[in-house]
């Protein structure tokens, strides 16, 4: 046969037809009725479901947010400039999914898993829905393992556990992100991998966080999800759910994960914006009525799984912003009732130089001592009560009262506690350092010392513990009398010489 032989052409064509998949193909298509402010009203998709992923004519993505009788409201996840009235919209029949897996560690991505760090594409083996049901009660186990934050005031007074949900709440610029970031830094040499989700944060703030992670060697074990203030509101709405899905994969494969949601106040604002644009009925402070359920179903996904499911844990540190310290505002109140406690930061303490500015009177951990490292629990048994009494006595003595010897001793002990609880940012403490500092306070070794002297002791303490071979002791067990005495002797060697 020649190359142009009709019989040869017919044989090739018949083979191609035989290889071609034959069958009906269903393609559901609608039209954009109007579009504005990141929301498109679409008609012609009567079978669309809430949360379904849509593809617009120009290739943009979106998802169904509100269903009405004649139209649906689709939230756009890409630039609105490419979407116009009359454009075709295709339903995919699937929900929004994001890539998951260890390939994302060390990368900076948007809520759709697309890289933002210029390090090339990310190839993962799976994509999971951004909205997933929380683990059932029978699939959960008790929270009993400590989550060391490296921040002494938290670990000693408000211990966190792996699988816990602890809210960090306070006014703007009071150190909320710093506490969460130090917790991530404290995991760099452990078995916990982290996910940091920036929701509507300033670009400069996110860059500082990323640089801090990179400089301290923690970025390689962290996934950074960024939805900046200039991104569409749909991306900011999607960000915490996408980050939670990425963190769940780390937990469900038997690992331990930590997720920081910075912050849910801005996420609530984006939800309110979308609700008002889609004409949902506003409620208190113009938030739609489902705002509580929105955050509840998000945070309920953090848990410790049962042994049958691998015993993985996912710890959540959501952040919320208050106005003038008003914890009774709508969003903080909701989140306080959803989570297992809150670390409340006080602007007055921050402005007086007490950092971290944790308000020990309004902060609480509802898991607490059940997860605290046993040695630290033994050392700090009465520390919170002593400090609370000191704060009350300090206020009383400001009115000119003449304290007796016992009260003077309490004031000296309280000032030592306050000095020890102060901590510079991005310098998390080891468990051994925390136990030693608490023992230094509780045994009265720091009574009467100036803050500068306490700072010098703190700086020299890690090397001294290492030199004495104490940093490798098992601090997860009860603090034995022998270990207690060894640490005290080590501390005494760091005290300044008494004046003659």
From TrEMBL:
Keyword presence, ATP-binding: yes
- The main enzyme category here is translocase
Which keywords fit this entry according to its UniProt record?
ATP synthesis, ATP-binding, Cell membrane, CF(1), Hydrogen ion transport, Ion transport, Membrane, Nucleotide-binding, Translocase, Transport
Q: Where in the cell is it found?
A: Cell membrane; Membrane
* EC number(s) given by UniProt: 7.1.2.2
What residues does the ATP synthase alpha subunit C-terminal domain cover?
372-467
The record's annotation in Gene3D superfamilies points to:
2.40.30.20, ATP synthase alpha/beta chain, C-terminal domain, P-loop containing nucleotide triphosphate hydrolases
Superkingdom of this protein's organism: Bacteria
Specify which residues bind ATP according to the UniProt entry for this protein.
Answer: 170-177
Q: Which reaction does it catalyse?
A: ATP + H2O + 4 H(+)(in) = ADP + phosphate + 5 H(+)(out)
Topology within the bilayer: Peripheral membrane protein
Q: Where is the ATPase F1/V1/A1 complex alpha/beta subunit nucleotide-binding domain?
A: 150-365
> Site feature Required for activity: at which residues?
363
PANTHER family recorded: ATP SYNTHASE SUBUNIT ALPHA, MITOCHONDRIAL (PTHR48082)
**Assembly and interaction partners:** F-type ATPases have 2 components, CF(1) - the catalytic core - and CF(0) - the membrane proton channel. CF(1) has five subunits: alpha(3), beta(3), gamma(1), delta(1), epsilon(1). CF(0) has four main subunits: a(1), b(1), b'(1) and c(9-12).
Q: Which family does it belong to?
A: Belongs to the ATPase alpha/beta chains family.
What task does this protein carry out?
Answer: Produces ATP from ADP in the presence of a proton gradient across the membrane. The alpha chain is a regulatory subunit.
Which HAMAP family does the record associate with it? ATP_synth_alpha_bact
In Swiss-Prot or TrEMBL terms, this protein is called ATP synthase subunit alpha
Q: Which gene encodes it?
A: atpA
